[in-house]
Design goal:
The complex is a heterodimer of chains A (204) and B (505). With 204 residues, chain A is of the alpha+beta class. Chain A is built from five helices and ten strands, in the order H-H-E-E-E-E-E-H-E-E-E-H-E-E-H. In chain A, a hairpin with a 2-residue loop joins strand 4 and strand 5. Helices cover 91% and strands 0% of the residues of chain B. In chain B, helix 1 runs antiparallel to helix 4. The chains are: A alpha+beta (204), B mainly alpha (505).
Chain lengths: 204, 505
C-alpha cells in the first residue's frame, strides 16, 4: 500500500501522533506553572524602578513610529490621538490625489491623507491591514494612512539630527529631524500649515 | 564343321565321332578283310588239309588194309582181319569225309565214284575173306587178282584224278584269297589316309576353335579375376570401414542409450517437478485471490483515508478561519496597545506605568501575530501535505487497482502456467516411457550391432577367401594362357590389385 520502498515504521508514526495529540491538548490552556512564571516576570518588570530617572532631566520626545511606503516615520505622541484600523473608506470627489477619502471616526468625519503622495514615496496606497493614525495639529484633525504601526519610543531631543540638506521642497518642510534609528520625525504643525494640503476646490 | 554356333564340346564330340566312325569303318574294313582272308585261308587250309589228309590218308589206309588183307591171305591169321577192317573203315571214312568236304562241283561225282569203287573193293575184300575162311585160298587170290586189284587201281586212279582237280581248285582259292587280301590292304590304306586327313582337319579346326574360344575365355577370365581382386579389395576396404562404422555406431549407441537413460531420469524429475509446480501454482492462485481481495481492501482503505484527509483539510481550513480571527484580535490588541501608549504619553509622568503595560500588551499582540503567522504557515504546509496525501491516496487507489489487475493477470498466468505444467508433466511421463522404450530399443540395436560385427568379421574372412580365390583364378588364367600358348612367354600379364586394407579386428 505504501509507495515508499522502505517499510513505514508504524510504531514511530503512532508515537508521533500521540506526541502531536498531547501538544494540541496542552496548547489550549497554559499549565499553571507557565502561567505563574509569566505573571511573575510581568510583575517583576512592572516593579522595576523607571530607568529613565537619570535622563529624565533632559528633554525627551515621545514618538509614535509608523511605516509608510517602506520608510519609518515618527509622529509626536502628543499630536497623535488614536491608531485605528481603516474601515469603510469613502472616497471624496474633487479632492487632491493625496486625500484618499473620509471615514467615520467616533461620530466625526475624518479625512485620510496619503503621505506617500505628498512625500513622493513608492508603493500602493490602501493595502490589506493598513492603519490610520488620527492626529491633531494646528487645530485640524486628520487621519494619516500608514502601512503598519510599529510602536512608541522615547528619544532625546538632542539626539534628533536636523534634516539632511539633500531634502528639498515639501519633504524638507515636513521633516523636523532624523533620529539615530533613521526615523524621520514629521512636523505635523508644518503639515497643517502647508498651503498645498488645503482643500479649496470649487466644483461648478 | 567350323560353324561358329557350334560349341567346343559339340565340335569335339562331332570330330571324335567322325574320327571314331572312320576308325570303326577302318576297323570294319580291316576286320572284314581279315575275316575274308582268314576265311579264305582257313577254308583253303582246312580244305586242303582235309583233302590232303584224305587224299593221302585214304590211299594209305586202303593200302594198309590191303596189306592186312594180304597178310591174312598169307597167314590166315584172324588178327589181321581186325586190322583190315579197321584200316578199311578209316579209309572209307576219309573218303566220305573228303566227299563231304569238297566244294568242287566236279569233284563230287569223282568222290562218289571213288566211294562206289571203294565199296566194290570192300565187297571184293569181304568175298576174299569169306573165301579164304572157307579155305579156298586159291579162289581168294583169284578174286583178289580179278576183282580187287582192278577196283583198287580204278579207285586209286579216281583218287589221283580227284586230287588233281582238288589241287587245281585249291590253287584257285589261294589265288582268290591273295587278291582279296591285296584289295583289303588297298582299301585299308585308302581308309587310313582318309581318316588321317580327316583327323588332322578336325584336329586343326577343333584346336583352332577351342583355342579361340579358350583365348577369349581366358582373357575374360583374367580380366574378370583382376576385377574380382580389385572388387574384393574394395569390398575389404569397405568392410573394414563398415566394421569401423559399426564400432563407432556401437559406441554411439552406448552413448545414446546412456543419454536415453539420463533423459528418462530427467523426464521423471521433470514430471515430479511439474506435479510440485502444479501444487505450488494452486497455492499461488489462492494467494493471488487473497492478493486481489487485499488490493480491493487496500483500495477501500485508501479511499477512506482520502476522505479522512479531506475532512482534516476542512478542519484545517476552520483553524485558518479561527487563526484569521485571532490575527484580527492581535491586530486590534496591537492598536489598542499603541493607543494606550499614546494616552499614557499624554498623561505625562503619571502615565509612565501605564505605558509599560501598554508596551507589554503590544508585545503580547506582536507575539500573537507571530504565532498566528506561524500557524498560518503550518496550515499552508498542512494544506500542501493534505493535497499531497490526497494525491498519494488517489495514486494508491490507482496502484491498488493496477495491483488488482496485475494480480488477476498473475492468477490467469498461473492458471495457464498450471495447465501447461500439467501438459508438460504428461509430456514428461510420455517422454519417460518413450525413453525407456528407447533404452530397450538401444539394447536390441546393440545386440544387432554385435551380430553385424560378427557378420562383418565373417564377411571379411569370406572376402579374403574370395580374394585368394581370385588370385588363384588369375594364376589359373596365366597357366591356361601358357597352356594354350597365347602369349609369347606363356605368362599372362596379371593386373595386380593393391594390398587390401586389413582390418584391425
Amino acid at each position: 500500500m505504501s509507495e515508499e520502498p522502505r517499510g513505514t515504521d508504524w510504531q514511530k508514526v503512532h508515537a508521533r501522533l500521540e506526541q502531536a495529540r498531547l501538544t494540541i491538548d496542552s496548547s489550549g490552556e497554559l499549565q499553571s506553572i507557565e502561567v505563574v512564571r509569566i505573571l511573575t516576570d510581568r510583575a517583576l518588570a512592572l516593579a522595576k524602578p523607571l530607568k529613565d530617572s537619570a535622563p529624565s532631566m533632559e528633554e525627551m520626545i515621545e514618538l509614535l513610529v509608523v511605516s509608510i511606503g517602506g520608510e519609518r516615520f515618527g509622529i509626536e505622541t502628543l499630536c497623535a490621538i488614536e491608531a485605528i484600523s481603516l474601515r469603510e473608506l469613502i472616497p471624496v470627489p474633487c479632492t487632491p490625489a493625496f486625500v484618499l477619502g473620509i471615514v467615520n471616526y467616533r461620530g466625526r468625519i475624518l479625512a485620510i491623507l496619503d503621505l506617500r503622495r505628498i512625500l513622493d514615496l513608492p508603493g500602493e496606497g490602501v493595502m490589506e491591514g493598513s492603519k490610520v493614525v488620527a492626529v491633531e495639529a494646528g487645530g485640524t484633525t486628520v487621519g494619516i494612512l500608514v502601512n503598519t504601526v510599529v510602536g512608541t519610543i522615547s528619544v532625546l531631543v538632542r539626539k534628533v539630527a536636523p534634516p539632511p540638506e539633500a531634502l528639498t521642497g515639501l519633504r524638507l518642510a515636513l521633516t523636523r529631524g532624523v533620529t539615530e534609528e533613521f526615523i524621520t520625525v514629521l512636523d505635523l504643525h508644518a503639515l497643517a500649515r502647508a498651503p498645498e494640503i488645503l482643500v479649496n476646490e470649487e466644483v461648478d | 564343321m567350323g560353324s561358329r554356333t557350334w560349341t567346343v564340346g559339340r565340335q569335339i564330340i562331332t570330330g571324335f565321332t567322325v574320327l571314331l566312325l572312320l576308325l570303326l569303318s577302318t576297323a570294319g574294313v580291316c576286320i572284314y578283310a581279315l575275316i575274308r582272308g582268314a576265311d579264305a585261308t582257313e577254308t583253303t587250309l582246312r580244305y586242303q588239309g582235309v583233302i590232303l589228309k584224305n587224299k593221302l590218308g585214304a590211299p594209305g589206309a586202303f593200302a594198309v588194309a590191303h596189306v592186312d588183307l594180304l597178310r591174312y591171305l598169307v597167314t590166315q591169321d584172324k588178327r589181321f582181319l581186325i586190322g583190315w577192317e579197321k584200316s578199311a573203315e578209316v579209309s572209307r571214312q576219309m573218303i566220305v569225309e573228303a566227299r563231304e568236304a569238297t566244294v568242287l562241283a566236279e569233284a563230287k561225282p569223282v568222290w562218289d565214284e571213288s566211294l562206289r569203287l571203294f565199296n566194290l573193293a570192300m565187297e571184293a575184300g569181304k568175298q576174299m575173306v569169306e573165301t579164304e575162311s572157307s579155305g579156298r585160298h586159291a579162289d581168294a587170290l583169284r578174286i583178289h587178282t580179278e576183282r580187287f586189284q582192278p577196283v583198287r587201281d580204278q579207285l586209286f586212279t579216281a583218287l589221283e584224278r580227284v586230287m588233281e582237280s582238288e589241287a587245281k581248285f585249291s590253287a584257285g582259292i589261294s589265288e582268290t584269297a591273295l587278291r582279296e587280301a591285296a584289295r583289303a590292304s588297298r582299301m585299308l590304306m585308302v581308309v587310313a589316309v582318309i581318316a588321317l586327313v580327316t583327323g588332322i582337319g578336325i584336329g586343326w579346326v577343333v584346336t583352332k576353335s577351342i583355342t579361340n574360344a579358350l583365348r577369349q575365355a581366358v582373357t575374360a577370365l583374367a580380366s574378370a579375376s583382376s576385377e574380382i581382386v580389385a572388387a574384393t579389395t574394395q569390398q575389404a576396404a569397405g568392410t573394414a570401414e563398415g566394421a569401423t562404422a559399426v564400432q563407432q555406431t556401437s559406441t554411439t549407441l552406448d552413448e545414446v542409450k546412456q543419454t536415453a537413460q539420463v533423459s528418462a531420469q530427467k523426464a521423471r524429475a521433470v514430471a515430479e517437478a511439474a506435479e510440485k509446480s502444479a501444487r505450488v501454482s494452486q497455492e499461488g492462485r489462492r494467494a493471488v485471490e487473497e492478493s486481489v481481495k487485499g488490493s480491493q481492501e487496500a483500495k477501500l482503505r485508501m479511499e477512506t483515508l482520502a476522505e479522512r484527509i479531506l475532512a482534516l483539510s476542512e478542519q484545517a481550513q476552520a483553524i485558518g478561519e479561527i487563526i484569521a480571527a485571532v490575527n484580527d484580535l492581535a491586530e486590534q490588541s496591537n492598536l489598542l496597545a499603541v493607543n494606550a501608549a499614546i494616552e499614557a504619553a499624554k498623561a505625562g509622568e503619571a502615565g509612565k506605568g501605564f505605558a509599560v503595560v501598554a508596551a507589554e500588551v503590544k508585545s503580547l499582540a506582536e507575539q500573537s501575530k507571530q504565532a498566528t503567522a506561524r500557524v498560518r504557515g503550518n496550515l499552508s504546509e498542512i494544506h500542501r501535505a493534505t493535497q499531497a496525501a490526497v494525491m498519494a491516496a488517489e495514486q494508491g487507489v490507482k496502484v491498488s487497482e493496477n495491483g488488482e489487475a496485475l494480480a488477476r493477470q498473475a492468477g490467469e498466468s498461473i492458471r495457464v502456467l498450471a495447465e501447461s505444467l500439467t501438459e508438460s508433466a504428461q509430456s514428461a511421463q510420455q517422454i519417460m516411457g518413450s525413453a525407456q522404450q528407447q533404452v530397450i530399443g538401444m539394447e536390441q540395436m546393440a545386440l544387432a550391432m554385435q551380430n553385424i560385427r560378427q557378420a562383418t568379421t565373417q564377411n571379411m574372412a569370406a572376402t579374403r577367401q574370395v580374394e585368394d580365390s581370385a588370385h588363384s583364378l588369375n594364376e589359373l588364367a596365366s597357366r591356361l594362357m601358357a597352356l594354350v600358348a597365347i602369349s609369347g612367354n606363356g605368362h599372362f600379364p596379371r593386373r595386380r590389385a593393391p594390398e587390401p586394407v586389413r582390418m584391425s579386428g
